[in-house]
Design goal:
By secondary structure, the protein is of the alpha/beta class. The protein has 22 helices and 20 strands. A 7-stranded parallel sheet has the order 3-4-2-5-6-1-7, sandwiched between helices. A 7-stranded parallel sheet has the order 10-11-9-12-13-8-14, sandwiched between helices. A hairpin with a 2-residue loop joins strand 18 and strand 19. Helix 3 packs across helix 4. The structure holds adenosine monophosphate (AMP).
Length: about 600
């Protein structure tokens, strides 16, 4: 397969965007403009009308939001841009994206308006003055007819997902709104497909539009088996963890969209016992080379990368590519999966697809001329089976390769002294050996719901009310292996846990109860959300849920235990504590 380098030869800073927007983009972590952004932002900034053929997931929101924000005059308190979307969900998403890009524009106001939401709130906010309106055509029309929204000051109008608006029967409303808007306004029309009716709207209302289209070249990818997992219920991190447990991989390359995500995900995988590293454009060339070298030399098994950083990556042992975040176009997908199946080996590609990204899945199938099979997440039974298999292998290789006469004697003595059957001793030792990776895995929870800092109680209540948050922990199937409290803790930690380090240790005379007590009382995290605590001479490690709110973490930084500030921080870099080291080098075949 040919490498399809969809080269974008300029960066965001080459676009004529204001420093405030560039700073926001930097903070959000985008590396380069996506193809639709590269094609749309310059003509929109120059004031041209635009006909953009792009679907969700291509980065089209930023393609129109950034030029609009660049040209907004915040001192003028009237709607200067209107974005029409087919659904309320999309209106909210677009409004959220605007907010995030506008984080350094003081006094910027955007208002989503859609049917089903009380008119009063919308009216109040409209009266207060907003700069951008994002709404569904019906409700926008209502406000215009009532005179509560005028488009006299409008400079840009965006039709987002025009083909969807057509499908939903909004096209007459859209045309009516277009006709009421000032004739000199700029129009950007985005649509995944361009049926004749949409072309007609474009011909009637757009003036000499520039066209932005993403070419979808086709390639063959015979050496790569492709599967997708529809993102539902279980969160992506849990899904990935399950896949990692069962999939027979040598090395894995995981793609995410932002530099920040490369680091966050690599850290989370590290905390779960995998040797994972990040690869992104913010890292120096030397550091990037070192990471690739470590992957080649097997001191890393997983690399979490952005598209740009993984360009041209050529490591034969990459057996799996996981598209944790869907790529923005088919070319990026083809480039990504081309990192596996190299040197005549078989490769595997897995794609996570959220419901709103289904169209991209179709486009990818077309471009690769392959049907992508849906995959099912490994079940608890699959994981149990795999762990048992690996454990058996470990026992067999240990019996074969190690000198065990001392241990045989020890077991014999123990049996005699305590009047125990060898089977009982072996059972206890099996349990101990697999304590951190039980042969019957504890059910994975989705996200911890046990914070108690008051501020989060509303969020928690919402989560609890939601019926589709994935599986609930099922305690019925667990064995009575240990006291319920410990089991509970492990479940929490296994579920969404992250390992933290605190600067108080055995030398300070600390006991686990001091740590649990202090964290529970002072940070408001319930005791059962606190995972394993390991005490070392100088410090301790504590498993805590991964989604601790910023605020709570801040509060935890100020906690004192045994008269010392605990200075809590993520466990990174340092050699892992024994239990995790054990997991990391497991299964045994990866030790070589
Ligand atoms: P959209 O197609 O606008 O719905 O965007 C899809 C996702 O891509 C969103 O999560 C954006 O935050 C993200 N995104 C947009 N542009 C970029 C970019 N240049 N680099 C990385 N991620 C991006």
């Amino acid at each position: 397969m040919q490498d399809q380098d969809n080269e974008i030869n300029f960066s965001f800073s080459d676009l004529a965007l204001s420093p405030q927007l560039l700073q926001a983009i930097r903070e959000i972590g985008y590396e380069t403009p996506s193809p639709i952004q590269a094609a749309s932002i310059p003509p929109l900034l120059e004031g041209h009308d635009l006909l953009g053929q792009a679907q969700t997931g291509t980065g089209k929101t930023a393609a129109f939001a950034l030029p609009i924000l660049n040209n907004i005059d915040t001192s003028r308190r009237e709607p200067q841009a209107l974005v029409l979307t087919p659904t309320r969900e999309l209106a909210l998403q677009v409004a959220e994206a605007f907010q995030s890009y506008a984080r350094h524009l003081p006094d910027f106001h955007i208002l989503p308006i859609y049917g089903g939401q009380g008119m009063d709130t919308q009216l109040r906010q409209l009266r207060r003055g907003v700069h951008v309106i994002v709404g569904t055509p019906g409700r926008v029309m209502d406000h215009m007819r009532r005179g509560t929204l005028t488009l006299a000051g409008l400079t840009t109008l965006v039709l987002d997902e025009a083909d969807e608006m057509l499908k939903m029967g909004f096209i007459d409303d859209v045309e009516w709104i277009l006709e009421q808007s000032p004739p000199e306004r700029q129009i950007a029309l985005f649509s995944a497909t361009l049926p004749e009716v949409i072309r007609k709207v474009a011909r009637r209302h757009l003036r000499d539009p520039k066209e932005a289209k993403i070419e979808n070249k086709t390639v063959t990818v015979e050496a790569i088996s492709q599967r997708y997992w529809p993102v539902t219920g279980t969160n992506k991190l849990d899904a990935l963890t399950r896949i990692l447990e069962v999939e027979d991989f040598d090395a894995m390359l995981i793609f995410v969209r932002t530099k920040i995500a490369t680091e966050e995900l690599a850290e989370k995988l590290e905390a779960r016992g995998y040797s994972a590293g990040a690869l992104n454009g913010d890292m120096s060339q030397a550091l990037r080379e070192k990471t690739v070298e470590r992957l080649k030399k097997k001191s890393l098994d997983i690399v979490v990368a952005t598209d740009v950083a993984a360009r041209g990556l050529d490591v034969d042992r990459i057996s799996h590519v996981v598209n944790y975040d869907i790529p923005y176009d088919t070319e990026a997908y083809i480039h990504r999966i081309g990192r596996t199946g190299r040197a005549g080996r078989k490769g595997h590609a897995i794609l996570f697809v959220a419901p709103r990204e289904r169209r991209m899945l179709g486009a990818i199938e077309k471009a690769t001329r392959h049907r992508i099979r849906e995959m099912h997440l490994p079940t608890r039974e699959d994981i149990a089976e795999r762990r048992v298999e690996q454990f058996k292998e470990l026992v067999m290789t240990t019996l074969e390769a190690e000198e065990l006469s001392f241990y045989r004697e020890f077991v014999q003595k123990l049996g005699k002294e305590q009047n125990l059957a060898p089977l009982d001793i072996a059972s206890a030792l099996t349990y101990l050996a697999q304590k951190d990776r039980p042969l019957i895995p504890v059910e994975k929870n989705v996200h911890s719901e046990h914070y108690d800092d008051g501020r989060d109680s509303r969020r928690r209540a919402e989560r609890n009310d939601r019926p589709d948050r994935g599986e609930r922990p099922d305690r019925g199937g667990e064995r009575r292996e240990r006291p319920p409290r410990d089991r509970e803790r492990d479940r929490e930690f296994d579920a969404s846990g992250t390992l933290y380090r605190i600067e108080v240790g055995r030398n300070d005379g600390v006991a686990p109860k001091d740590i649990v007590g202090a964290i529970a009382n002072e940070a408001g995290i319930s005791g059962k959300s606190i995972g394993h605590i390991k005490i070392y001479d100088e410090f301790c490690t504590v498993g805590l849920p991964a989604d601790i709110p910023e605020q709570t973490l801040k509060r935890m930084e100020r906690i004192f235990i045994m008269g010392k500030p605990i200075n809590i921080r993520l466990w990174t870099g340092e050699p892992p504590p024994a239990t995790y080291a054990k997991r990391r080098t497991y299964p045994p075949k990866r030790e070589d």
